[in-house]
Design brief:
The chain is an alpha/beta fold and about 500 residues long. The protein contains 16 helices and 15 strands. It has helices at about 5, 25, 40-45, 65-75, 90, 100-115, 130-135, 145-160, 170-180, 190-215, 240-260, 265-270, 285-290, 365-380, 410-430, 470-480, and strands at about 10, 15-20, 80-85, 120-125, 165-170, 220-230, 230-235, 295-300, 305-310, 350, 385-395, 435-440, 460, 465-470, 485. The strands form four sheets. The chain has an eight-stranded parallel barrel, surrounded by seven helices. Strands 7-9-10 form a three-stranded mixed sheet, covered by helices on one side. It is globular, with a radius of gyration of 21 Å. It binds ligand GBH. Ligand GBH binds next to loops. Ligand GBH binds near residues 303, 439, 446 and 455.
């Protein structure tokens, strides 16, 4: 890390875009309203033990009815953009015919954003496949990719006159490998071949979606968002540890990066996953579709990890530094048995480095973000003129509500502060990063962990649906307003 950016006042590049992000199923609620039908998350949430406390997104933050208030809040926080996703199951409830009443919600939302001077940053797919399409095979069925392209066209016909930024997919790694291999996310399947089939068909959907959008909106900003890890070998001098890190990097990052930005699957990954039939799904021409040029790569970063071919000896490394009140990750885990998400990383072990942990049990390691952005710039985006935005970064912590209702979340504030500084370090090292979206605007439905984990810079009281801006939110508003990260020891920090 650069000593100048580590603690001092940091000016961000002119025009840097400041936003927050949410996702339809995590915030909208209104799951049975205006003709919406089940997505795979509505179904998955009914499986006993799949989601902690049996929570689901039926009501969530009721953003569907409270979007005006939420947009006003974003305007008050001086934000420039709102990254949201649209619900496929609202728009095409059975995966087929359009539901105008559901589609109309996004009309209202986009108009509200524009009148508040917020840039609508639209993501078409944040994990909520219509259940009807899952029943036809879901992402293991090649046809789903073509249905996705139709959905992209529906959305563009409705909103293309007002929305200029289109993201096809959010984190296909999660959709494919948490959903179809680990079974920890919807639809809850546990199969290595299914995860790989899903990964390929998700990328095909992305490529077909980009082609359909590009044809209709040549000047639009088109792209997708991937989630990344930074896998470091425990012992860089041990070839087995280096190989463990290569596998994780391959099956997490490069399995998407290389097809999308280079038009080919990485040879080492193909070799690792050879027993599981990935190539059975790859038809002539697919990689040309998948690598259709994009304008923007959205980068989601939460944490990295140290990996090894051997398990960690007990006692070494420690269990990480858990702030008071932060539970062991497993205490809050759903009770259903799940498997590893990685199709071919048996024998790879993650080691604790003794770094601080968030309430998710994830290590806090901002310099991983610097290295990630610089590497992406050099190896993938730079040579193709693709811009990067940090489309998600943030942290869950167990917030304490003061007697006056205030939430003084210095832990979350420091997390975001550290990662913004890390982003600036990457920019100074040549990475073309043009904006940052905090995850999340609101506390929301944290997937398999239900409402037990809070990521918002705004607190949501799920009894009353009352919103309260946390200290991190007030601080983030000044950062967005001034385009400056204030010095860390600034005593006026909220
Ligand atoms: C994002 O995914 C989602 O886009 C968003 O919907 C969600 O609410 C948010 O994050 C918070 O969870 O192996 O234990 O080190 C996060 C993707 C993938 C990030 C797995 C952490 C490694 C966990 N995650 N990853 S670990």
């Amino acid at each position: 890390p650069n000593p100048d950016t580590a603690t001092g006042r940091v000016e961000m590049p002119q025009g840097f875009l400041w936003g927050t992000a949410t996702a339809a199923y995590q915030v909208e609620g209104a799951a049975r309203t205006d003709g919406r039908r089940d997505s795979i998350w509505d179904t998955f949430s009914t499986i006993p033990g799949a989601v902690i406390n049996g929570d689901d997104g039926t009501d969530a933050c009721d953003h569907y009815h409270r979007y005006r208030e939420d947009v006003a809040l974003m305007r008050d926080l001086h934000l420039g953009a709102y990254r949201f996703s649209t619900s496929w199951a609202r728009v095409h409830p059975d995966g087929g015919a359009v539901n105008p009443a559901g589609l109309a919600f996004y009309d209202r939302l986009v108009d509200e954003l524009l009148s508040a001077d917020l840039l609508p940053w639209l993501t078409l797919y944040h994990w909520d496949l219509p259940q009807a399409l899952e029943e036809a095979g879901g992402w293991t069925n090649r046809d789903t990719a073509y249905r996705f392209a139709e959905y992209a066209v529906t959305m563009h016909e409705a909103l293309g006159d007002r929305v200029g930024v289109w993201t096809t997919l959010n984190e296909p790694w999660c959709s494919a490998f948490l959903g179809y291999t680990a079974g920890v996310h919807a639809p809850g399947r546990q199969s290595r071949p299914d995860g790989l089939a899903a990964a390929h068909h998700l990328m095909l959907a992305h490529g077909l979606g980009i082609q359909a959008l590009r044809e209709r909106a040549p000047a639009a900003n088109l792209g997708l968002t991937l989630n990344f890890t930074v896998a470091d070998p425990v012992d860089p001098a041990d070839p087995a540890d280096v190989d463990a890190a290569r596998r994780i990097d391959g099956q997490f990052n490069r399995i998407f990066l290389d097809p999308i930005l280079r038009g080919e699957y990485p040879a080492d990954v193909l070799e690792d996953v050879a027993p599981y039939g990935l190539l059975d799904h790859v038809r002539d021409g697919d990689l040309d579709i998948i690598s259709t040029p994009i304008d923007t790569l959205g980068v989601n970063y939460y944490n990295g990890g140290a990996v090894s071919a051997l398990p960690q000896e007990s006692g070494s490394g420690g269990g990480g530094t858990r702030p008071e009140g932060v539970r062991e990750a497993d205490d809050a885990a759903p009770v259903r048995e799940t498997s590893s998400p990685h199709p071919a990383a048996d024998g790879v072990h993650t080691h604790s480095r003794g770094l601080p942990l968030t309430d998710m049990g994830w290590e806090v390691q901002p310099e991983g973000l610097t290295r990630l952005l610089v590497r992406l710039q050099e190896e993938y985006t730079g040579p193709r003129g693709v811009a990067m935005y940090v489309t998600e970064n943030g942290a869950a912590f167990p917030d304490v509500v003061g007697p006056d209702g205030a939430v003084d979340d210095q832990d979350r504030l420091s997390f975001i502060d550290g990662h913004l500084r890390a982003t600036k370090d990457a920019i100074d090292a040549g990475a073309d990063v043009r904006g940052y979206f905090a995850w999340s605007l609101l506390d929301n439905f944290e997937w398999a962990l239900g409402y037990t984990k809070r990521f918002g810079i705004v607190r949501v009281d799920y009894e009353t649906q009352e919103r309260t801006v946390k200290s991190s939110g007030r601080w983030y508003a000044t950062v967005a307003r001034d385009n400056v990260i204030p010095a860390r020891d600034d005593t006026t920090r909220p």
